[in-house]
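Problem: given the chain below (65 residues), write out its structure.
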Amino acid sequence: MTLRFNPAETEALRRRAEIEHRSMQDVGRQAVRDDIERTSRDDLINAVMDSELPRYAEALERLGR
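Solution.
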């Protein structure tokens, strides 16, 4: 797999790697892992909300009054 970045993205990645004393590849791979973890968690929360919220809709409606 090859990722292509525009010059600004490449420079930002290079600076981050220098600051962290890591390779650009390590920083990029960690960013991808972090994004997958975050979006997977968001997807799970949304799925639970979609399935459970209707069950409690009436109670939530009453609490909102």
